[in-house]
Amino acid sequence: MKKRIIYALIGLLALCSTSVIAEEVVKLKGLNGNALVRFDENGIPSIEAESIHDVVFAQGWVHARDRLWQMDINRRRSAGRMAELFGKGSVNGDYNTYLAGLPQVSSKIWAECLPAECDSYQAYADGVNAYIANMAEPPEEYLRIGVVPEAWSPVDSVAIGRGMSWGLSSDLGLEIMLGVLAKTIGNTLLMDLLPIDGVDPITIVGDGSASSFPAHDFDENILATLDQPIFTTGRMDFGPGRGSNNWVVSGTRAANGAPLLSSDTHMGLSQPCDWYEVHLKAPGLHVAGLSVPGAPGILIGHNEKVAWGVTQARFDVSDAYVEKLDPARPDTHYLHKDESVPFDIEKVSIKYKTDAGFQTEERTILRTVHGPVVYEADRPKTVTSFRWTGHEPTHEGAAFFGFMVSNGLDDFKSALDLFEVGAQNFVYADVEGNIYYRSQGKIPLRKGKPFLPLDGSSGNYEWRGYVPYDRLPSAHNPVSGFVATANNRQAGDDYPYYIGAIFDKGYRARRISDLILSLDKVYFEDMQAIQYDVYSLAGQNLLPVLYSAVEENEDMLSISAKEALGILKAWDLQEIPDATAPLIFYQWLKHCTINIFKDNIPEEVFSNLGRTEVMYPMILRKKNPIIDVYDNVKTPDIRETKNMILTQSLNDAIVELEKRFGLDKTQWNWGKLHQIRLGHQLGGEFSVGPEPAPGGSDTINVADFGLLGNDFNFGHGPNMRFTVEMSPGGPRAANIIAGGQSGNRLSPNYADQFLPWIQGKTHPMLFKEADIAARTIKTIVLTSE
């Protein structure tokens, strides 16, 4: 790269109203014209070009400049190629990726892509490769592990998108885990212990009464051979691993008369962040928002006329099937509708790195009419296969391109129809004053309530199409003046289709709604304050149960536990790092889990019950479980009650805290056991933190964790916070990401947003030319070679 100071090229002067001084000019093959890249103090680029092709090409170049290592990890994770970087220990993970079908379907999507998708993927790949071809040296991570970056393919971007869809939509791991639990403790007890109605029945649309956890018409005998699966790509603990908040407020409620929209995605908190903020401008395209390194365009953001945000829908879009083997030919055939059917067989070669070079391990994938076999055990009688909506090619890339160029609600709805896999709750606002919500994604029509493994041999549980898109839960300019979603159930008992079984507990959605309703008029700053809210509805609802229990058993409490009880009663329910009460509250929940379940439930099941999804309903339920989980089997002369266990759990919590932090409760605070560390793939000095942070498992500013560990540190939460006001004079938007824009740990933008993110701060987003020009600190001109 040749560095020099020049005034902007004549072609670029037409793109912006101010003269530009470029610190760097880069000549690249593949550009049709010129592109201007201007960075602000946060390392956020504004990219302008003379065509959509060139602006997407430039986005690929900029992504590679700042996040090449992360992009490589993302594509390899979704393509089953991690072992090429990290050795034989990653072979099983790569095999699981093939079992999920991600590499296979990604190739199909590219082969069948729509014109807008094809053009974007190719232009983006060309931009990435232009950077790789001209870089002076690869990012530090490559030097550490002794490899060099490979060329980028359009299929790599497709695979990253399908990998995100897998993480956001497949509940295979949960279904198999529930099947294992049903086998271990019986379906009746499992249904009794699971959160039958959640803890708050709030729904996104409808009357706010969520459907009960549905009954299931399955033959328990099909679970007889089911065990923990070899398949480990999906999350195997209780509940979905990702979430989000979003809400949209109409101009009738907004202080400035223009719709307001907020969106924050709850994902793994890693370094670098999953998101990269960017502004893109070309003839026919003007958009700003959050992009994914490795993929073209913007997934959450706004253009001049519309804005959108997403949350995970948690639809049930995959089914596990227990397949009976043909006794005469169990190695090659299975039974389906009383017929012997041969397995389809696929051979995959997984390359892995060794000290002496690369070696290859061959693996086999068996497929039934439902999909790949993910669990074989010793294959005495059955195997387990699964079907997922993401196994078929779809066109989410075209959907997001459609969002970016939408001129209004009709355009947005048309683009939304192309979004089929990775089901999301979309909220929308525009400068015409419309607000809109729709849950979008393919939901299979099938018999029963298939949240447990199904009998694959009978043919009774086949998919019969999908819920029509015009029947999916939606709302357009609702009378309430707002729509809020937080992974809670979309609709109530009157909704005619089965869409899923396990949704969020409802506290985040309830708190968002309560805060909006409490405001006479909603300001932009109110939307941001709601995103950062850490009021504990869990504490508000659960602690009265503890107080009642203590009233019955006050003589059981130690003097120190009585002091702790006083701290809880004085708590303002704010889950902040300096507060003592949150530490006592969650420690109490931990010991409730231990004292209720550990002596009654098999160990392999107990380890899956250390979640608030389980404990909140257990504490709040009025009816006793069908087995006496409260009586301690180690005290045969005493029959413990629920209230006795809740009281004793407070004693036990205080004993543990005193051992760890001493007797002085003023030295106890939430931040000592509740911290965030942004972990990097290579760890060490590449990671960021830890730092104490606010929030809890069910606050709007969520900071999720399990209950059975030695701490309540978290690695899952809002990795971005986006808010926009869609006024006719032009959008006003703000954002923050967890970490920083750059993937170079020596860059000032590597982690400069980390502490502001913890503190609830944001920055204005780049969109208007005057603001971009005022905030520009570095300019790069890309020219065609």
Give a brief outline of the structure.
The chain is α+β, with helices and mostly antiparallel strands and 785 residues long. 32% of the residues lie in helices and 21% in strands.
Describe the structure.
With about 775 residues, the chain is α+β, with helices and mostly antiparallel strands. It contains 23 helices and 30 strands. It has an 11-stranded mixed beta sheet, with helices on both faces. Strands 6, 7, 23, 26, 27, 28 and 29 form a 7-stranded antiparallel beta sheet that branches. A hairpin with a 2-residue loop joins strand 27 and strand 28. Residues about 1-10, about 210-215 and about 230-240 have low confidence and may be disordered.
Average pLDDT figure: 90
* Poorly predicted tracts of residues: 1-11, 210-216, 228-240
Number of helices: 23
Q: N- to C-terminal separation? A: 12 Å
Helix amount, in percent? 25-40%
Total strand segments: 30
Shape: globular
Strand pairing plus helix content: what structural class? alpha+beta
The gyration radius over C-alpha positions equals 27 Å
For the biggest β-sheet, the strand order reads 3-30-4-5-8-9-10-11-19-20-22
Largest sheet: 11 strands, mixed
Task: Bin the strand percentage.
Answer: 15-25%
